[in-house]
């Protein structure tokens, strides 16, 4: 749970103040914050409190059986958890975005390379056509002169 900022504190105080003295006079029915009778209206008035409310009530609320000294409930996970290697956790978190970036970069590179090849081929064709038309013009200029001499 991340620490509360001053803006969150202000928002909670403002929302509680908006609820009025009638709601504040009621006794709290749960150990969580805010009290049950205020939580629905408070979350309506200040949606940014929702994450704080859920995290706070889960973390600090205890059941009556735990307070009375009864045995705690059995853990949901085994005690011998296998810790993940730091590199594995990095690639678990960032592997998919990194692979997307690499894939998109390869696709972009190939697309631009093929586009460049196509434009280069078109330019080479234009150069050859221009050279061919120059040679044909020179041939036309030379050919009539050769026929007159004969």
Range of strand content: under 5%
Q: What distance separates the N and C termini?
A: 103 Å
What is the β-strand count?
Answer: 0
Indicate the percent of residues in helices.
over 70%
The run of helices and strands is HHHHHH
Using the alpha-carbon principal axes, give the shape: elongated
Mean pLDDT over all positions: 74
Radius of gyration: 39 Å
Low-pLDDT ranges = none
Q: How is the main sheet built?
A: none
Structural class: mainly alpha
Oligomer: single chain
How many helices? The count is 6
Please provide a written account of the structure.
- The protein has 150 residues and is mainly alpha-helical.
- Helices cover 72% and strands 0% of the residues.
- It is elongated, with a radius of gyration of 39 Å.
- The N and C termini lie far apart (103 Å).
- The model has no long low-confidence stretch (mean pLDDT 74).
Summarize the entry for a quick read.
With 150 residues, the protein is mostly helical. 72% of the residues lie in helices and 0% in strands.
Question: What are the key terms here?
Answer:
mainly alpha, 6 helices, 72% helix, 150 residues
Detail the topology: elements first, then pairings.
Blueprint: H1 6-19, H2 21-24, H3 36-45, H4 49-60, H5 64-67, H6 86-149
Helix pairs in contact: 1-3
């Amino acid at each position: 749970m991340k620490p509360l900022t001053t803006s969150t504190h202000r928002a909670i105080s403002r929302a509680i103040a908006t609820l009025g003295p009638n709601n504040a006079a009621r006794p709290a029915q749960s150990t969580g914050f805010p009290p049950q009778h205020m939580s629905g209206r408070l979350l309506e008035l200040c949606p940014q409190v929702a994450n704080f409310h859920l995290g706070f009530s889960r973390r600090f609320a205890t059941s009556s059986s735990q307070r009375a000294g009864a045995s705690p409930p059995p853990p949901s996970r085994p005690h011998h958890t296998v810790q993940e290697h730091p590199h594995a956790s990095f690639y678990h978190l960032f592997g998919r975005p990194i692979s997307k970036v690499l894939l998109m970069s390869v696709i972009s590179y190939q697309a631009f390379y093929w586009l460049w090849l196509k434009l280069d081929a078109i330019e080479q064709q234009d150069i050859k056509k221009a050279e061919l038309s120059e040679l044909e013009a020179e041939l036309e200029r030379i050919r009539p002169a050769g026929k007159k001499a004969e």
